[in-house]
Amino acid sequence: MILKNCKYIVTQDKERRILEGYDIRIKGNLISEIGKDLSGDEEIDCSEKIVMPGLVNTHAHLGMHSLKGICDDETLFTWLDIVNKEEAKLTKEQVVKNTRDGALECIQSGTTCIYDSYMYGAERIKVFEDLGMRAFVSSTVQKIEDIMHVENMLKACTNGLVKPIIAGHSPYRCSKEVLEKITELSRKHDLIRRIHIAETKKERDDTLKERGLTSIKYLESFGFLGKRCLLVHSIWVDDEEVELMGKYGASVSHNPISNMKLASGSVAPVVKMIEKGVTVGLGTDSVVSNNNLDMFEELKVTALIHKHHWDDPKAMTYQMVLDMGTIMGAKALGLKDVGSIDFGMKADIITLDLNGMLPMNNVISNIVYCANGNNVVDSIIDGKIVMRERKVLI
Amino acid sequence: MILKNCKYIVTQDKERRILEGYDIRIKGNLISEIGKDLSGDEEIDCSEKIVMPGLVNTHAHLGMHSLKGICDDETLFTWLDIVNKEEAKLTKEQVVKNTRDGALECIQSGTTCIYDSYMYGAERIKVFEDLGMRAFVSSTVQKIEDIMHVENMLKACTNGLVKPIIAGHSPYRCSKEVLEKITELSRKHDLIRRIHIAETKKERDDTLKERGLTSIKYLESFGFLGKRCLLVHSIWVDDEEVELMGKYGASVSHNPISNMKLASGSVAPVVKMIEKGVTVGLGTDSVVSNNNLDMFEELKVTALIHKHHWDDPKAMTYQMVLDMGTIMGAKALGLKDVGSIDFGMKADIITLDLNGMLPMNNVISNIVYCANGNNVVDSIIDGKIVMRERKVLI
Fold first, then answer.
1. Given CA atoms A114, A115, A118, A120 in this order, what sign does their dihedral have?
2. Residues of B in contact with A286 (CB under 8 A)
3. Quick check: B77 contacting A, CB < 8 Å?
4. Which of A106, A370, A377 to mutate to test the interface with B (most CBs of B within 10 A)?
């Protein structure tokens, strides 16, 4: 397959090159050549399109899709109460349907790789495999019995495109024993372990009171921190904790829209984290706290909130933001061959129309500050076309 | 003309009703009937669409359209330096073309009424009249000689759809004498007078030092405040100033994306303003500080930043945000018959597809938290179709 006459290719390669008028050859599931005058059996005309790596969403709960908009503008306590009651009513069939509906919204808005956490892990793995979407799937663990899910999920993965993650809910819903078991199993199976951490001031204060340690130091105390560890939110962390996260090579999923919508009270210090060597990806969180799955919105709001928070327009640049939405997000999920358009990388590619992005004085600025999910025209995942001219082909 | 079988009509009427399965009759430039089984010569099928009032953008500088993306992620001082140099190069022809390009982007993303400020007022009035877009136009005044523009602009208006505004730049670029003259002329011609005010801490501190008064008290001292006064930004104002703004019935244009992108340092206290009787509309500001003209993004970011700033998810609700983007914005520009779908109101209406907005548990929440400008399918301004199936007809 050839992506022909690409008006702009945003490579996200090491030099962050932007190429004009080039072709891309895809062979199997890989990018095999970037050059001029390439030809092949199947050609997609990209002469009026931006071609860029697909976006990576490092935190979603697609199983909640049918609950979009059921509870907005409520304080966290009321929100949790209402949402949890509605979740309790969801059947397995509804969760599977929701996951599929959510994944379709993701594909249509430019996400090619997602980390999705909810109930019924094995069944959801099948949804992503059927759609041909790159995905990491977890069933959130709260009790020791829940951990058995992991073995089922490992068995359910058949095509290499979908992999499990072992996910502890949080320090307030999981005992230390459960979190230790998660750490052990994650190491045994070489899987990513994840936790929602330091999302609210109350959570941080409670951990400090009950464990005598800040949130990240508590995780360190039983070996949770490490290269295969994904810390979701990480808002209420101090400089010492940021230092620790960097020392252990941990990753963070930053979800600014969800954090602002739920009024989590502060902003995760991701600029400091990146300086200290933490890998930071972006995530939408669920449709009850966002309420869409449009990663382009997440890019723009990330740039805006950090400029605002640090009172400095240079605090978060468009290039940093796009890195978090592509290569850094992929790296946070342990993928080294996803997130850029370069020789030998996996062919996870989207194309955008130029609606609202003219004039094109600065391609990456326009992607971050002007584009949205409805600009996405085509989507290729693992070398296969999953959407063409906005029509999902599955 | 009949909008037929509307799936949802978001009326924004006094009861904020949402109607399902109704038709809307447009006669001349007015909404003449909302009912069932209406028929007419021209029918637009809305059975899979949300029908809502067009959005009102209370602050833009469309004349800068060709400068989109030329200067991002820079501190205000560098930004002003670069942008002003580029602006100095713009010819009259380029400003006219930019205004047209910008207005087309506005129409395509759901704005039906705009307040646009830049050079060459009379020429820009013609652009909006030719496009059939409802607009308020000003040529920014910095020196006494500039005020002559107003008479030319009044003469240039021919069809009632476009009206002038008298705009002083700011307290730091206009002398008190100039601002007094603006106040006088605005009263004489019954036109809105506008000023950029309290955008940065430095501006507030300088006014306090040089005039011995806070920004709004300074404006009050020579009679600038009043019902026909539009205060753009109004970020750095204290409770006493908010009280004054309400007392005089002033209006505010709130531009959160521009304020965050330029790191203006705080958030305009618009919730307090509304409580005190100030009319608050939303605006995108220019494509050099946003960088698109998508009012749907402005809706969502307004909701997010106020929840975040006040640490309270209830601080800014989706209904308040939609009000500011429609009826309150229209009122801020002095329009009482624009901004809602109701008998006798001007027919300024847009339709949206449901992309990214399913399931539809809450229509207004989905408009604010899930939609973007690319969802807009049709646009009707003053009873005339200006866009149909995303094709601008002019």
1. positive
2. none
3. no
4. A370
Report the complex ipTM.
Answer: 0.97
A13 at the B interface (CB within 8 A)?
no
Determine the pLDDT at residue B255.
Answer: 98
Q: Could you tell me which chain B residue has the CA closest to the CA of A265?
A: B311
The burial class, CB within 10 Å (0-12 / 13-18 / 19+), for A77 is exposed
Distance from CA of B15 to the nearest CA of A (A): 20
Answer yes or no: pTM beyond 0.90: yes
Going along chain B from its start, the domains and CATH numbers come out as 2-53+339-392 (2.30.40.10), 55-332 (3.20.20.140)
At A139, list the tokens.
């069933």
A268 in contact with B, Cβ within 8 Å: no
Is B308 within 8 Å of A259 when comparing Cβ atoms? yes
Summarised one tens digit per residue, pLDDT across range B28-81 is 999 999 999 999 999 999 999 999 999 999 999 999 999 999 999 998 788 989
Q: Within an 8 Å CB–CB cutoff, is residue A138 touching chain B?
A: no
Indicate the pLDDT class of residue A142, thresholds 50, 70 and 90: confident
Q: Per-residue pLDDT tens for A94-114?
A: 999 999 999 999 999 999 999
Listed by number, the residues of chain A in 276-335 with a beta carbon closer than 8 Å to a beta carbon of chain B are: 290-294, 297, 300-301, 303-305, 307-308, 310-318
**A-chain residue closest to B108, CA distance:** A356
In sequence order, what are the residues at sequence separation of 6 or more whose Cβ sits closer than 8 angstroms to the Cβ of residue B329? B55, B56, B57, B58, B113, B281, B282, B339
- What is the least distance, in Å, from the CA of A176 to any CA of chain B? 30
Query: Inter-chain contact B75–A312, Cβ cutoff 8 Å?
Result: yes
